[in-house]
Amino acid sequence: MSSTIIRIMIIDDHQLVRRSWRMLLEGNPSISVIGECSADEKVLEKVDALHPDIILADFNNKPHDGFSFAEKLTLAYPDIKLICLSIKKGSQFVHQMMSLGTRGYLTKNTSLEEIHRGILQVYQGETYVCDELKKYLLV
User: Fold this and answer.
1) Contact predicate 86/58, CB 8 Å
2) Check: CATH 3.40.50.300 for 6-134?
3) Residue 41 Rama label (left phi>0; alpha psi -120 to 50; beta)
4) For residues 60 and 44, what is the distance between their CA atoms, to the nearest angstrom?
5) 51-70 confidence digits (pLDDT tens)
6) Which pTM does this prediction carry?
7) 95 vs 15, 64, 77, 116, CA distance in Å?
8) Residue 83's closest CA among 65, 59, 50?
């Protein structure tokens, strides 16, 4: 990776999950986790204040519908790249998330090395779907 630091915000309803992702991601010197939050009404305020390069989010969070939440983020912040990190593997869910502007899709089974690769690819303006799902999707 280059000397550029990729600024990431993590959205997940579980504090332990957010903190774990922070520790794992910050093991990569090219990544800085600049914020984390649950999927509550303060997400937009926090995104507005921090303006990350990438948002890594579990869009299965309540009380929001993941599709409308992703769409709201991409409309409000078109220059911030979204990566969905989910346990959902259905092709319809993945295609719909990508059609709403999500730039990457990773499952919670994705290896850390592949997560780093996906983050870099999305940061560079490409889309990324994890290897686990590529065999089922035409993306």
Assistant:
1) yes
2) no
3) alpha
4) 17
5) 999 999 987 755 556 788 88
6) 0.88
7) 28, 19, 20, 22
8) 59
